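Render this sequence as a predicted structure.
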Amino acid sequence: MRLQPVASDDPRDVLRALRGAVLGAGPAIALGAAPALPDRVPAGTAVVLTTSGSTGEPKSVVLSRAALTASALATAARIGEGHWLLSLSGGYVAGVQVMVRALVTGRDPAILAGRFTPQAFAHAVSGMHSTAGGERVPTYTSLVPAQLQTLLDASDDPDVRRALRSFETILVGGQALPAAVRERAAELGVRVVRTYGSTETSGGCVYDGVPLDGVRVAAVDGELRICGPHLADGYLGDPERTAAAFVTDASGVRWYRTGDAGTVEGGVVAVTGRIDNVIVSGGVNVSLDRVERVVQAVPGLETAVVVGAAHARWGQTPVIALAGPADERLLAAARAAVAAEIGKPARPDRIVALPEIPRLASGKPDRRAITALVAAAESGSPPPRP
């Protein structure tokens, strides 16, 4: 099967190409900043999406039509069908899934093109007036936490507030959603569902801790593993990485090893962080994801990011990166909260003020870039070149 790169950042171009890849006769499409890829892929492939995530090397994930469609139909079974607004990058799996969900129900998504702002969001929502049989069609969208935070901060604007409240469901994923942000949304009457998944699972496959129909999640030696019809076929041209990430158990069931630490109790999935996002501070293993969740619960630090930094005495220590001035009162509150919930060795050592928080195209914090900026800021060196 032929593979056709889609170089355009315009989501309308991605939508046109995706329509043929998912509903038509192809070709399969390649999205993301991919290295050189072969021009042929296995039959049934719809999308090859290259992503490096917030850490690690680029990987080209092979997603079949069957996997993408299974994910889209499972979402519809859980939250309902309707008219979708695409507010995310078309080169990111959550954006792809918004388009696939729309395509499989025969209704093109509304598209927020250009820079994401509260005003642009409200304007895009104002044009969503679909009806069927004289009844209003429910509307849906998918956001990352930073986008939801931006909209909530602008909710004094009645148009933004009306837009947020108009959705039957807003899916929020890509990273952990701070509890304080979710509580603000609920107080405003915004219906938010937290999603968990990855490119390898065709996007979100666990909604508010409960796996979608057909999805199974297990914790094996503390690592979450996922199986179901939505799994990727593997990594294009990388059989060793594919074999390491996708494993088959004794009963012949194929599982994806997420690399995330977590638990499954009573059918509810809880993610506690990345297994590899751990530093050793004074001889104690400290999960930066866990520290970050506690820090983000402190008022004023909802958008903070916690990374590891060098420390003369402890070797490494958690550091809070924040867009804006570094307030020592916020640091004191964060240290107290972390000490109470996790323990003193996990307390953040300092706050580093950055002009802005670098983000990946997916909206996730770019942790490698943030770590480099923190190191440069503290050394007095010029920031690293992007």
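Summary. The longest helix spans residues 65-79. The mean pLDDT is 90.
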